[in-house]
């Protein structure tokens, strides 16, 4: 979690920023926020603490314009400027200072943008970015701009080297590639990359010198997310990169929402079935499925209410994750859960599943002002089925037998 310094002499602006920083999207990344009213306070705080980011007013009452930002940058703090006005001389001054970006203070939305910019920069901190360009000077310029946005920059001298790096390092989420490169040009690189990494996994920004209006369209058609023409303004570069990576993050959020159960945060039935079918197609002899059902769960809802029932399901989900963290655990529906394991020996999985009931007996779940001893019935189906759905069906039959034989037990097909 990050520590942020905000240097601002307006009480109203400070109040607005304090409120926005309490929002969930900001609290996820920012742990400590220190406010300074003037240059002197900022200097004292910088001597006391190490900061990840600074949001700095361009003009303060006790220093010359830009001095506060110069101070934070001298302390190696990535800095975003707040300014109430902007002309070309001020813009050049900020670029020379080496700030990440600037925000013009003209309405409440500008402060929201500033806080979102801070969180986006912190989210990107240390994220690997690949720059592919045969010009060492161009690579250095791009590297410097990207490092201001807190990225970890990796360099490639040509398309072939870039492709090899991307195949080896799947953690890279952004590629900036020049068009004119030896061995493999930008179009060929984008086309080759898209054969194994889609737009929702890796963002690509194509770059080329001015003079060919068709390059941008070709880059996009081959699979790039965006395009920049050299020479470009620093602000344009920062905005394009931030927006491209943010779009990638939003896609990840949408996918996560589609794959997760809203109540427990576990994977949902859809994810389990899709992943199970893919896994089964690769190695059907190593797929083991267990279905788990909470015994007498209706009694909890009837006695304590549905809110307590939801709490019980969340606690049960946590207990399952605790004992089965190396496997995929999903909420299958209602009070039923599923486990998907990739293993050639199901004996260890059986023991882990049996430990769940031991845990529930030793540590009852908490409901309202009391505790409740919950148990589960488990049906296990291991391997040797013609498809994944047949494996699920076998686990369901085994679960039915566990219920019929007295509950609180595991039955293997």
From TrEMBL:
Named cofactor requirement(s): Mg(2+)
Keyword Metal-binding: no
GO MF terms held by the record: diguanylate cyclase activity
Superkingdom field: Bacteria
SMART domains with a match to the protein in the record: GGDEF (SM00267), REC (SM00448)
Residue ranges annotated for the GGDEF domain, each copy included: 285-413
SUPFAM superfamilies associated with the record: CheY-like, Nucleotide cyclase
Occurrences of domain Response regulatory (ranges): 3-120, 128-245
Gene Ontology CC annotations of this record: plasma membrane
Keywords carried by this UniProt record: Phosphoprotein
One GO term of the biological process aspect: cell adhesion involved in single-species biofilm formation
InterPro entries assigned: CheY-like_superfamily (IPR011006), Diguanylate_Cyclase (IPR050469), GGDEF_dom (IPR000160), Nucleotide_cyclase (IPR029787), Rev_trsase/Diguanyl_cyclase (IPR043128), Sig_transdc_resp-reg_receiver (IPR001789)
Pfam family, one: GGDEF
Residues recorded as bearing 4-aspartylphosphate in the entry: 57, 178
Reactions listed under catalytic activity: 2 GTP = 3',3'-c-di-GMP + 2 diphosphate
EC numbers on record: 2.7.7.65
The protein, known as: diguanylate cyclase
């Amino acid at each position: 979690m990050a520590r942020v310094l905000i240097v601002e002499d307006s009480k109203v602006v400070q109040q607005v920023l304090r409120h926005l920083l309490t929002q969930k999207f900001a609290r996820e990344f920012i742990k400590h926020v220190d406010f300074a009213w003037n240059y002197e306070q900022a200097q004292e705080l910088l001597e006391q603490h190490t900061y990840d980011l600074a949001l700095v007013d361009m003009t303060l009452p006790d220093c010359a314009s830009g001095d506060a930002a110069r101070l934070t940058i001298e302390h190696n703090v990535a800095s975003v400027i707040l300014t109430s006005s902007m002309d070309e001389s001020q813009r050049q001054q900020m670029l020379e200072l080496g700030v990440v970006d600037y925000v013009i203070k003209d309405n409440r939305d500008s402060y929201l943008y500033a806080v979102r910019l801070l969180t986006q920069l912190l989210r990107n901190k240390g994220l690997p970015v690949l720059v592919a360009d045969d010009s060492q000077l161009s690579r250095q310029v791009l590297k410097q701009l990207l490092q201001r946005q807190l990225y970890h920059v990796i360099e490639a001298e040509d398309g072939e080297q870039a492709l090899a790096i991307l195949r080896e390092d799947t953690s890279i989420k952004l590629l900036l590639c020049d068009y004119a490169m030896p061995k493999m040009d930008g179009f060929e690189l984008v086309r080759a990359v898209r054969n194994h990494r889609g737009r929702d996994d890796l963002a690509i920004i194509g770059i080329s010198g001015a003079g060919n209006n068709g390059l941008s369209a070709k880059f996009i058609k081959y699979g790039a997310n965006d395009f920049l023409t050299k020479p470009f303004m620093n602000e344009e570069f920062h905005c394009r990169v931030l927006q491209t990576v943010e779009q990638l993050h939003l896609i990840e959020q949408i996918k996560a929402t589609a794959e997760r159960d809203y109540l427990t945060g576990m994977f949902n039935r859809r994810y389990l079935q899709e992943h199970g079918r893919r896994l089964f197609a690769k190695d059907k002899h190593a797929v083991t499925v267990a279905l788990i059902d909470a015994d007498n769960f209706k009694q909890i809802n009837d006695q304590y209410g549905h809110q307590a029932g939801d709490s019980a399901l969340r606690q049960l989900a946590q207990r399952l994750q605790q004992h089965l963290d190396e496997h995929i655990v999903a909420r299958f529906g209602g009070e039923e859960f599923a486990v998907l394991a990739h293993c050639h020996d199901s004996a260890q999985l059986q023991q882990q599943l049996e430990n769940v009931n031991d845990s529930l007996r030793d540590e009852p779940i908490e409901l309202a002002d009391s505790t409740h001893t919950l148990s589960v019935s488990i049906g296990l189906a291991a391997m040797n089925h013609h498809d994944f759905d047949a494996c699920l069906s076998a686990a369901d039959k085994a679960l039915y037998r566990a219920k019929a034989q007295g509950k609180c037990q595991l039955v293997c097909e």
